Amino acid sequence: MSNKIQSKMAKGAIWMVSFKLIERSIGLVSTLVLARLLSPADFGVISMALSFIFLAELLGAFGFDVALIHNQSATREYYDTAWTCNILLGLSITLIMVLAAFPIANFYKHPELVWVVSVLALGPLISGAENVGVVAFRKELLFHKEFVFQLTRKALGFMIVIPMALALQNYWALVTGILFSKLAATVISYLMHPYRPRFALSRTRELIGFSGWLLMNNLIGFFKERSSDFFIGRLFGADSLGTYNIAYEFGHLPSTELSAPINRALLPGFAKMTEVEDVSRGYKNSLGIMALLAVPCAAGLAVLAPYFVPTVLGVKWLAAVPLMQILAFNGAVLMFHSPICAVLLARGYPQMPVIANGLYMLILLSQLSFIALNVEQFSVRNAAFAALLSSLLSTPLYLYILQRKLSISPMIFMRAIVRPLCSSVLMVLTIHWLLPAYDSSMALTTVATWLLAGIGIGVIVYMLAVLILWILGGRPNGPERVLLDHVGKLFGKFKASSSAPQL
User: What pTM, to 2 d.p., does this model score?
Assistant: First the structure.
């Protein structure tokens, strides 16, 4: 039974990673077009508005979907109650944000935020009406349906935001794209799943009993990721905030695009497991794959940022280079926090991620507060350093909690990262040695050529280094062996098909 579950988890992870790759490709094209059409200030205005809206959403984000996944025997009453609560919470958040539009605009000293916040406030209500039946896609490990659902809504959002950006060329294009994407998700949820929810509140107490911890964890997680928005927007303005958020998005790209979809598959799988050994093995395998792929991507982005930004985003975003270099490493560290939280939630310890994320938040807020009190001596770059330092200092606590509650040794973490980390360091040193320093006088074609050369050099050096270290380590069972076995199987199938007689 456990092998069957792990097999479904592996397939689910593949489906979710595939979705994330396609979604990110769409998102990357969208961001590149928008970055060329819009200014950093446009992105900053939207970030200002969304920072408060996300906060309001998280105040009502009880995570009823996770509660339904965790409760393997949940009846229709639970699903109907979850849907009803989501709608009521969405309506409440919409009304609160409309009332708060003027105070938010005054806080950031941007009058245009009044209408932006008021329009974006419709988002929580639209999302709250989404068909709760689609939770079954994850609960029953039907990730191919989850793949179609998530991809369709992303594609429809892309189809509206680009034409709007070409027509308007201001932040209203982003507002339209965000709302349309939410509306598309709600409509598609009813088209893809036959479940038709009814109004009910009979199971509210049971759902909130588990989800109360998820609410706290989501709220703390929000400050973990978005605290900088409030400080940077207030202290340095919309232009700096827009630059920081673009750097944050691309800096976290290598890690989040792997960790988020894998964790989406891990949580329901771990919830179905009954043996501690299976949980430990599943955690080890997922962590190893994530480290093997995400660590070099983050390191490569950091060293190639001076070429990546002018080539992909344009020279008006050059201020994002030092931020992206710092935040790429921050994203890599945060990547290791997410599977720990997923395992703890799935195994019935929702309070533990709250404690760990709470410590991270306290460390980060203390640093940002110090920057705010001494703003004349600091810059946006210091906020990025604060995020990285907070991630590094809080990681030992995450590992300690995992060992204390599930007897999963921190040595699993150390073994998972040692070869990818050493290989990535060698890769970065090689690229830094071979590539010239970026100069603003370089032609765009020259910069793009060096970017492609750096990527090629990095891939070759990293793969060779990992392979050599794995062989020197005695070829242990791990992600390297898994990937080599898959490559061998694919090569075998290709060889067999190419050598088959033609009729």
Answer: 0.63
